[in-house]
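re the bet — no i am not wrong, look at it urself. input seq straight from the record:
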Amino acid sequence: MVEKLKRMKKMKTYTQLFTLVLFLAFNFGAKAQTAQEYTDQILAIQAQIINDNIHYITKSLNDHKAHQNEVERKAILVHLNQAIAQVKALPAYKGDNSLREAALEVFNHYKETYQLDIKKADSLEINGKSPYNAMKVYFDLQNRAEEKLVKTGKKFINVQKSFARRHNLVRQTDEMICLFTKLAEVNNYTRQVYLAYMKVDEINRTFFESMKRKQVESMEKNRLAVLATAEEAIATLTKLGNFEGNRQYVDMGMKLTHYLKNSASKEYTELVTISHKKHATQADAMRFNKIVFNYHNQSKALMTEFSVASTQLLHQNVLAEANPLVAKNLQKETQKSLSLVVKPMSNLSAETLSYETNVSTSSMNLPQE
C-alpha cells in the first residue's frame, strides 16, 4: 500500500509538471506573432508527449509488471488529453491550420495506441520465466504499437516541412521524433536477437528440467532439440547481422547460442550417458557435478555480457543523440536492469540444477533403474 501511494504521489507530481509545461507553451503561443513562434509552441507540446513515450517504453523494457505500467499508461493518457485540448484551442496561423491539425492527428493516434495496443501488451505479465511463445506475442504487440507511433510521427514531420516552406522558415529537424524512431528501431532489433537465442535457451532449460526429474529419454530428446534449434538460431542471427555497424549485441547472442550448441554436443552427451548407468561410480558423480557447476557459472557470465551489450547498443544509438533531459531519463531506466529486454534467463539454472559439487554418488541423485 505504501509503495502504491508513493507511485500515485509521484505520478501526481509528474502530471502537475506536465500541465505547467503545457500552460507555459500555450500562453507563449497565445502571444505568438511569427510562424516560427507558432511552430515552436506546437513542437514544445509534442516534445513533452514524445518524451513521455520514450520514458514509458524504455521503462517497460525493464519492468513488465502490468499493474505498475497501467498507472503510468493512464497518466500518459491524461497528458495526451491535456495536449489535445491545448492544441485544439489554438487558432490557425494566418488561415493555415495544417500544422495544428497534424499535431492533433499525432496526439489522437498516440491516444488510440495507448488505449488499445499498449494496454494489450502491458496486460501480459511477462518475466524471465515466461515461455518463448508468450514473449514473442508480447514483443510483437510492442513492435506494432511502436511502428504506429513512428509512422504517425513521420507523417507529422512531412506536414511540418510543408508548413515551413509555405512560411519561409528555416528547415529544422524534429529531434524528438527522430530520437523516438531510432529507439523503436533499436528495440525491434534487440527483440529479434533475443528471441532467436531465447528459443534455444527454452529447450535448454527443458533439458535440465528433465535431468532434475531423472527422465533420461526426455534428456536425450531435448539435447537433440537444442542442437537443431541452435542451428536455426545461428542462421537467423547471421542473416540479421549488425545494427548500423554495431555487432556487439548480435555477436554475444551468437556466442551464447554456440555455447549451448557445443554443450549439447559434448557435455550434455556425458550427462545423458552417466544418467543411463544403473550404478554410477564416484568418478561419474564428480564429472556429472563438475559439468553442471561449470555450465551454471559460464552461462551466467555470458548472459551478463549479453545484457551489457544490449544496454551499450541503446547508449550508442539513442543516448548519444538525446538531449540532456531525455538522456538522463533513459539512463535512469536502463540502470535498473542490465538487460533492455528481460532479466537474464540463465539465472533460472540455479533453480533447476539442484546438484551440489559433492563427489558422492548419493548427492548426485542419479536415476536408478
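see?? The chain has two domains: 2-172, 196-364. told u. also Residues 239 and 365 are 42 Å apart (CA to CA). so pay up
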